[in-house]
Write a structure and sequence with these properties.
By secondary structure, this protein is of the alpha/beta class. It has twelve helices and ten strands. It has helices spanning 10-31, 53-68, 82-90, 101-109, 158-169, 188-193, 209-217, 229-234, 253-256, 278-290, 292-296, 320-329, and strands spanning 41-46, 72-77, 96-100, 118-134, 149-151, 179-181, 199-204, 220-222, 243-247, 261-273. Strands 1, 2, 3, 4, 5, 6, 7, 8, 9 and 10 form a ten-stranded mixed β-sheet that branches. Helix 5 (158-169) links the parallel strand 5 and strand 6. Helix 10 (278-290) packs across helix 12 (320-329). The termini are far apart.
Length: 331
């Protein structure tokens, strides 16, 4: 016959339950991230011109940041583009931005304020240089822009930097050989549609919504720029960041009529400074990588963010926080 088990008093049972709850609570506390480790406070992000890829990407990234870091209060600032973005971050007017590698290099080579504090977080996607003209135009090459009214981007934009260098590579002077028009992608399409300009330069991810919309409303085409790569590289300096590229035929189907177009490309970088908190930078780097497909559903260029190449932020050294993130996900 089995012996009766000793009877446990109500008091001892309650004591045991309490101890178990304490141990469980400590275990949960240990497993969950501590609140103080979650970034908090304001963050300023400089984007780009209205209707451009930088602005659209920034707005979508803001939503992802709010989801991943709810205690971070993000403020987006429109800008003229890469050159203004780099200056803002370097001088403390913004915490993060997107800028093309040539604009970053130009800022560094000039020794502009705060250049030595700039740091990279992510190599994002490539900008493609696009020269858009009416289909019936006689402009078949950059050299044919002589004497024409050409929108070359706003003064502190990456477009202006590229346009000046491309024109120079073709033997043209922006100030004397064309009539330059300082306009961004928010106004360029309408200017071309209403015959206020003869052509415009744009540098952005593929496809840029404003260019696609213009191509579907007006008969335009893209000019081949591939023959200028060698001349650009001879310029040295920031021009070494331009490389030969091809816009696929489906980038702007209405404009390209089934044909790919040779052009130039330059990498975009997520930029900050060594002043930025390492935890915040690491978490933002993770957010950018993890949100690639989600953002890419609306901004196609974002789909090209690749963890294998994201850490190559030349000409900038990696921020310590971004480096920590890449080490944590290294296979």
């Amino acid at each position: 016959m089995f012996q009766a088990l000793p009877r446990i008093s109500r008091r001892r049972a309650l004591q045991g339950s309490t101890a178990a709850l304490v141990v469980f609570g400590l275990l949960v506390w240990w497993l969950l991230p501590m609140d103080e480790d979650s970034p908090k406070g304001p963050m300023t992000f400089s984007t780009g011109v209205q209707n451009g890829v930088y602005e659209r990407y920034g707005k979508l990234l803001e939503k992802e940041i709010s989801r991943d870091m709810p205690k971070v209060d993000v403020s987006l600032l429109n800008s003229e583009g890469s050159q203004q973005n780099v200056e803002r971050v370097a001088t403390g007017k913004a915490d993060f931005t997107i800028a093309a590698a040539d604009a970053v290099e130009k800022y560094r080579l000039e020794g502009a304020p705060g250049w030595d504090r700039l740091r990279g977080c992510v190599r994002l996607y490539d900008d493609y240089v696009q020269l858009v003209v009416p289909r019936g135009s006689g402009i078949e090459s950059v050299e044919d822009l002589r004497g024409k009214r050409v929108a070359v981007g706003q003064d502190r934009s990456g477009v202006r930097l590229i346009a000046d260098r491309v024109l120079d590579a073709a033997g043209l002077d922006t100030a004397t050989d064309i009539t330059p028009v300082a306009a961004g992608i928010d106004t360029m399409p309408d200017l071309l549609k209403h015959h206020d300009i003869d052509a415009f330069f744009w540098s952005g991810g593929l496809p840029t919504a404003s260019v696609r919309r213009l191509s579907e409303q007006t008969d335009v085409r893209l000019v081949d720029l591939g023959h200028l790569v060698e001349s650009l590289h001879k310029q040295g300096g920031a021009s070494r960041y331009y490389r030969a590229a091809t816009m696929p035929a489906d980038a702007y189907p209405a404009a390209q009529k089934g044909s790919a177009v040779r052009t130039l490309a330059v990498a975009n970088l997520l930029v900050t400074t060594d002043r930025t908190d390492a935890v915040l930078t690491s978490r933002l780097t993770r957010t950018v990588i993890d949100s690639r497909d989600h953002i890419g559903d609306q901004v196609h260029a974002a789909q090209l963010v690749d963890l294998r190449t994201a850490l190559f932020t030349d000409p900038l050294p990696l921020h310590a926080g971004a480096r920590g993130y890449y080490r944590s996900v290294k296979p």
